[in-house]
Fold Alpha/beta hydrolase.
Amino acid sequence: MSTEIRANTVLPARREQITLHTADGLQLIGELALPESRPPRATLICLHPLPTHGGMMDSHIYRKAAFRLPALADLAVLRFNTRGTASEAGRSEGSFDGGNAERFDVAAALEFAEFHDLPNVWLVGWSFGTDLTLVHGLDPLVEGAVLISPPLRWSTEEHLRAWAESGKPVHALIPEFDDYLRPDEARKRFAAIPQAEVTGFPDTKHLWVGKAEDALDAIVRTVAPDVPTPLPRTWDGPSETRQVTIVNS
């Protein structure tokens, strides 16, 4: 019997709590979700929205990615709390540094992925996480970047040029009614990266409330184009329902 995939539906995966170790001596709380019985096609490293405004590893798109994508798209999903950020899984050590010392957090996630031989690594940033991606994420291990609601707040022209010169794919998912950067302006700003693809999402706002499925479909189309989209909205097989407690950072 088919089960409708709802916000709190958890599909089968191998999930483990992980600790990332930064070069400046902090321990960061995280989780790795892997396909239950197959090797992953690709790996998502999720960089969350601004923790001073409620962003964390449980921010709803990332929570749903971890709950669904290992089963629906054979993807590995690595999500974690940047320094000083709390979620139901716990609080990472350190304190928020406005995107500066967070470079060590991004590096720690990449080092974890490399040490554990996770394949085809993509950075998926959302809001503040897109600036972390553009500023600190241009690493040889990274295949490319998916940017959800990028404000381009800390990312400079120099950072955009560096991504342009790398040739790595950049996919920007821009809400029609975003608070910071809307599709027409985004196309102008991302023209600095010739290979960047900018996709507008009608009737969508910065936080993607009610639109998570659109974001997940776009991510999968980018990192695993062999997987048919839209992804299934029902599931035949075992599943769980989990109520996540949202913790304020």
Summary: Helices lie at 60-73, 102-115, 128-136, 157-166, 183-189, 212-223. The longest helix spans residues 60-73. The chain has a mean pLDDT of 97.
